[in-house]
Amino acid sequence: MIAELDIDRIIADRVVRRSHWEPLLPRKKIGYTRSRLYASEAFEVLALLWFPGATTPIHDHGASYCATRVLAGELHVTRYLRPDASNDDGRIPLQLVGRSVQQIGEGDAMESARDLHSVANRATNEALSIHVYAPRYSEFGIYDASGVRIATATARYDAVFNF
Ligand SMILES: [Fe+2]
User: Fold this and answer.
1) In sequence order, what are the beta bridge partners of 102?
2) Whether the predicted pLDDT of 5 surpasses 90
3) CA 51 / ligand 1 centre spacing (Å)
4) Could you tell me the distance, in angstroms and rounded to a whole number, from the CA of residue 78 to the centre of ligand 1?
5) What is the CB neighbour count within 10 angstroms for residue 89?
6) By three-state DSSP, how is residue 138 classified?
7) In terms of CB atoms within 10 Å, which of 8, 66, 101, 127 comes out highest?
8) Could you say which DSSP state residue 83 is in?
């Protein structure tokens, strides 16, 4: 299904309407907000607004494909690979894939339930990113650094739009 999606086009379609949706994004003083810009059966597009100091735990995206693109600010991203997707007890440690500081126009693609990351805004200004998930997912796993799946979380939206 991923092969049929033009991720660059999906992102570009939202970027051209950025002036319409960006002012509507919910804001809070800490953490980050997740706003759904668009959803179909095949995929959904979210805008994440990251406030200074925002950081996520190490997480997967269910079994969905995830593509990201920074639109403003910069994001510190640490990527991991689970050696075995059934390794919920952390018998085998997570493999560190790499760390990067992603600038405007940069991003990542994670293709399976084995691809994990943590994301942080360590700057003093906000960061904005677009995320495409295919297909949509409702639950995702949170992991500790040793690879133990410590929680299952429910995906939430701070706002839902149709752009
Ligand atoms: Fe993520």
Assistant:
1) 75
2) no
3) 16
4) 10
5) 10
6) coil
7) 127
8) S
Quote the ligand 1 centre to 91 CA distance (angstroms).
23
Decide: pTM greater than 0.70. yes
* Alpha carbons 79 and 108: distance in angstroms, whole number: 9
Neighbours of 34 (CB within 10 A): 17
Whether the bond between 135 and the residue before it is cis, its omega within 30 degrees of 0, is yes
37 C-alpha to ligand 1 centroid (Å): 16
- Tokens representing 102 are 């992603």
| Token couple for 84 | 């075995």
Work out whether the CA dihedral 27, 107, 90, 154 comes out positive or negative: positive
Distance 23 CA to ligand 1 centre (A): 23
Specify the residue for token string 């995830």: 66
Please report which helix (H) or strand (E) contains residue 99, including its range.
Answer: strand 95-102
Distance 13 CA to ligand 1 centre (A): 21
Domain 4-160 has CATH 2.60.120.10: yes
